[in-house]
C-alpha cells in the first residue's frame, strides 16, 4: 500500500520520546519532513538527528506547549522552514492521579493546559497552513480512558481525554468541506523503555503480571511502533474516508461497545 506521504510536512508535539518519538520516526520513514517539539532539548536533538539520518528535513524547538506565544511562533516557523504544513499530531499529554475530592483548581488548570488547551492552540495555529494544501490532517492522541471510565483517581485525565475526542468530532464536521480530516486515537496501555508502564513493570513485576492477566486480552502491552503505524495510516490519504472518528489501538483492552 502506497501511503503517499512522500514530501508531506508533519508536526508532532512531544516528539522527543515515547509515542511521539515513534510517530515522528514512522512518518519520516514514510517520507515526511518533520517538526518536533518538547521541553527537554537533549532527547529532542537525538530524535532530530535520527530523522536527519533518514534523509528527511527536520525542524525542532525546545518549548513548553502551555506557553501560547511559543506554540504560535513554532507553527509559523515550521511552515517557513519546511515549506508548509500537511499533518498535525497533537500528542503531548500528562496525568495527575488524585481522588476528585482532593483536587484543587490548580490541578485542573495545569492538566487541562497540557492535555487539552495546548492542542486547541496548536490546531488553531495550524489550520491556516492546512487550508493552503489540497488536504490536511489533524490527529489527537487521546486514550481509551476518554471513551470509558479509567477508574478512581483519574477524573482529571479522563475528562481531558473525553474533551479531546469531543473536540475532534466537531472540528471534523466544521473542516470537512475544506478537505481537512480530524480524528482522535485512543491508545490502551503502551509500554516503551523509560515510559510509565515500563517503570511500573520494573518496580512491581508481580502486580503488573496480574494487571496484564486481568486487563490485556492479548497478554501483553502494546508497543509505540504499533501505535505509530495506525497514526501514520490515519495521516495518509489511504484513510481519506475517515474523519470524526476515534480509533482504539488497545489490543482489546477497552470494554466500551462503541
Ligand atoms: N503510554 C501509554 O500507555 C498511553 C496510553 C494512552 C494514552 N497515552 C497518551 O499518549 C500521549 C503520549 O504519551 P507517552 O506515554 O509517550 O508520554 P511521555 O513518555 O510522557 O512523553 C510525553 C512527550 O511530551 C513532551 N511534553 C510533556 N509535557 C510537555 C510540555 N508541557 N511542553 C512540551 N512538551 C511536553 C515530553 O517531553 P518533555 O518532558 O521533555 O517536555 C515527551 O516528549 C499522551 O497524550 C498520553 O496521555 C499514552
Description:
- The protein has helices at 18-29, 41-53, 68-82, 105-131, 155-175, 196-203, 205-215, 224-235; strands spanning 9-13, 33-38, 58-62, 87-90, 136-141, 180-187, 246-249.
- The chain starts with 8 loop residues before the first strand and ends in a 9-residue tail after the last strand.
- The model has no long low-confidence stretch (mean pLDDT 98).
- It has one domain (9-249): 3-Layer(aba) Sandwich (Rossmann fold), CATH 3.40.50.
- It is globular, with a radius of gyration of 18 Å.
- Helix 1 (18-29) packs across helix 8, helix 3 packs parallel to helix 4 (105-131) and helix 4 (105-131) packs parallel to helix 5.
- The protein is an alpha/beta fold and 258 residues long.
- Strand 2, helix 2 (41-53) and strand 3 form a beta-alpha-beta unit.
- It has a 7-stranded parallel β-sheet, with helices on both faces.
- It is built from 8 helices and 7 strands.
- Bound molecules: NADP nicotinamide-adenine-dinucleotide phosphate (NAP).
Amino acid at each position: 500500500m502506497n501511503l503517499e506521504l512522500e514530501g508531506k510536512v508533519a508536526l508532532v508535539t512531544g516528539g522527543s520520546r515515547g509515542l511521539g518519538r515513534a510517530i515522528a520516526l514512522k512518518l519520516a520513514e514514510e517520507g515526511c519532513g518533520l517538526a518536533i517539539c518538547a521541553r527537554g532539548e537533549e532527547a529532542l536533538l537525538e530524535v532530530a538527528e535520527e530523522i536527519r539520518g533518514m534523509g528527511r528535513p527536520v525542524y525542532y524547538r525546545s518549548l513548553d506547549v502551555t506557553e501560547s506565544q511559543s506554540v504560535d511562533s513554532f507553527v509559523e516557523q515550521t511552515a517557513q522552514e519546511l515549506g508548509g504544513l500537511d499533518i498535525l499530531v497533537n500528542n503531548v499529554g500528562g496525568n495527575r492521579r488524585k481522588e476528585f475530592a482532593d483536587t484543587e483548581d490548580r490541578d485542573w488548570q495545569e492538566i487541562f493546559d497540557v492535555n487539552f488547551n495546548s492542542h486547541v492552540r496548536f490546531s488553531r495555529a495550524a489550520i491556516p497552513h492546512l487550508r493552503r494544501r489540497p488536504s490536511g490532517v489533524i490527529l489527537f492522541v487521546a486514550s481509551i480512558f476518554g471513551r470509558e471510565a479509567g477508574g478512581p483517581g483519574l477524573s482529571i485525565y479522563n475528562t481531558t481525554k473525553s474533551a479531546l475526542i469531543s473536540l475532534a468530532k466537531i472540528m471534523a464536521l466544521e473542516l470537512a468541506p475544506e478537505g481537512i480530516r480530524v480524528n482522535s486515537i485512543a491508545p490502551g496501555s503502551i509500554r516503551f523503555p523509560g515510559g510509565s508502564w515500563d517503570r511500573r513493570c520494573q518496580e512491581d513485576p508481580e502486580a503488573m503480571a496480574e494487571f496484564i492477566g486481568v486487563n490485556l486480552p492479548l497478554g501483553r502491552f502494546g508497543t509505540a511502533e504499533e501505535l505509530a503505524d495506525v497514526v501514520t495510516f490515519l495521516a495518509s490519504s489511504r484513510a481519506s474516508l475517515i474523519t470524526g472518528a476515534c480509533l482504539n489501538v488497545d489490543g482489546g483492552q477497552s470494554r466500551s461497545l462503541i
